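G., the chain you wanted modeled:
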Amino acid sequence: MHLIPPPFDKLTRRCGQIGAVKRLSSLGALAAATLAALATPDVAHAGQADTVSPIQQNAIAETEEQIAFSADELVYDSDTDVVTASGNVVMVRDGNRLRADTVVWNRKTGAVEASGNVSTVDVDGNVAFGDKVEVTDTLKDGLVDNLLLVMQQGGRLVARQGSRRSGVYYLDQAAYSPCSVETSKGCPKEPSWQIKAVRVRYDPATQRVYYKGARMELFGIPLGVIPGFSHPVGNRGGSGFLLPDYRISGINGAELSLPYYFKLAPNHDLTVAPHIFTNQVPMVEANYRAWVGRGAFNILGYATNSVQSDGGGTQNRQFRGYLEASGSYRFSPEWRLYGSLRRASDRTFLRRYSISGDDRLRSNLRLEHIDANSYFSIAGWSVQTMRLGDSQRQLPVALPVVDYRWRLPAPILGGRLQLQANSLALYRPLGQDTQRAFVAAEWKFRTLTGLGQEFLLTAYARGDVYHSGDNALNPIPAYMGRKGWQSRGIAALAADLRWPFVGSFLGGTQRITPRVQLVAAPRLSNLNLPNEDARTVDLEDSNLFALNRFSGYDRFEDSSRLTVGVDYALALKNFSLESVFGQSFRIDSRPTLLPDGTGLSRKVSDFVGRTTVRYKDFLSLTHRFRLDKDNLAIRRNEIDATIGSRRTYVVLSYLLLNRNVTQQLEDLADREEARIGARVALSRFWSLFGSTVIDLTDKKEAPGVLSDGFDPVRHRLGVAYRDDCLDISFTWRRDYQFAGDARTNNNFQLRLAFRNLGI
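Predicted structure as tokens:
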């Protein structure tokens, strides 16, 4: 059985020629042609005595109101009451359409026999092609030889013989596939997969195909019999088994997952998947999804009762699991509530079962309002650590976190004024507690001079109030601040001048933009306040001209400074280059609170820059760097590159942080890392892919690390097949991380997905 039946196969023999299946399955073209033929019938009249005259032909159409007729030539035998139509024949009745080269209609019996390029379209949009079609004059019921049924919802059915009764299709010796049956050059080909059966029933009302004696074929190879199988062809799928998942791991052994899908209602469903292991007790996975009017949410969970090791030799059999939930609900165009929950029973469960490699799980809930000139949110969040060395009781719970911003719609003194109010409350079971609130105002005035210079003036003012307790429990003294109530006033004024020079170069356009920024800020009592959200600070191209180069609100850069830089851009036909380079100079003599290693601790900062190069769609490269201002030593070297086409490419990533840190601050730790990923197209559908992550950090760069300068972190290698209806991949993965019972091991996974096949 072939998905291209004989009458259409002969039309696709010559490669490069558009095949009949491709040409005739266009529902839009067929409908348009039918309507055009009905609107402007071209009726030719022969010279026989029984040929219908124009008047007589119109009379037939008028007296038979339920059926419309169109043809190049129409002959009526009054003795037998038989109408014979030929040449672009179109019949329409109650939304059902028939088209053929020749149609013989017996008006006494109601039998209609069509031949020659026959196609029918039912009221649901399903198109049936055949050598010969016999139907009633209702155009609903009939018999088709060598049937090809192109379903409106997608997919094809072919059969030696098919019939349609009461809107339901019945097929004998049939095959189904949603796959293409032609190559890109128009040559016929077997589909990637198909379902063959002795009997097939397709009900357009339920949009479901039922099989008797079915068997699955993959690349022409039988996979086995599928008793009692059915599947939807639209979005009305029902409950049933999904495709299994196969894995092999050095820890868990062989793994088989067999998901079962429960369609509870059109707007919510449940998938339950037992996981069977050869080396471990079973595990169950469940995923519940729902859509509720203006919102949607998803709940995913894993549960088992297995042995858990804490890495110190203790092993206990206990309940282990993971819960993940997310959802969003929109009350109005301006108001939205969304959040997520992530919790694991222990710190090694996710890596043990290859669910996730995240070292911290964040849960949050946020109510948000956004309109044209204001933003308001109230939120809360918490974090669960997956790091074996971390203390969970040291991690905070934030509740509430409030932020409000209002931009005045009308200019003030020619500039835009934005007001902000913010508060934060952090609680730790065993650690420092911090509460914070502030109000701020920011005014920006932007103008262009007569010489084409862009001038930006920024004025910023803020008032802070803090309260903290149990400060001595903070393990980092630089972050604890003073206990009790503390306050701070912040003021800053910045003037920013850009002067772009644009001209032609090498057949393209280049732009050179010198930039100067002057910032004035009084000395602040930063160290009296706790530091919760501004611990990560590092001079980069992204914050070179920032008003505050700290990442959060708890610290504000209180030095007056001059920052100079230059932006360069070159745009050619197939090539572009963008670059920025700059340096900052403190113009006051007071000590800075910025620690060594940030590039900002001395009066003259390090050099910092970024270069981005793009060539067609073949190359994209970004290089970020920071150079020591004294000896030009590389303090930061970051490269991200993508080379190749969409099907064959290499992704390269390299990061070196050699910041010469003198204080033991976790957020300024040095490291060196390389990441490589690649995909190679072996053919149109087959590809080879792989990736690796290597830790290059040594004890010279970071004295406390265990790495010896070349420690693999993760390897992945696989082969994949992907076409319009099939995904196959086989992947090997090796993780080198050792954490409790999540040991270094090899993982093998086979993934098989039949696209466009529901349940």
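The domain at 6-237 is CATH 2.60.450.10 (lipopolysaccharide transport protein A fold).

Shout if anything looks off.
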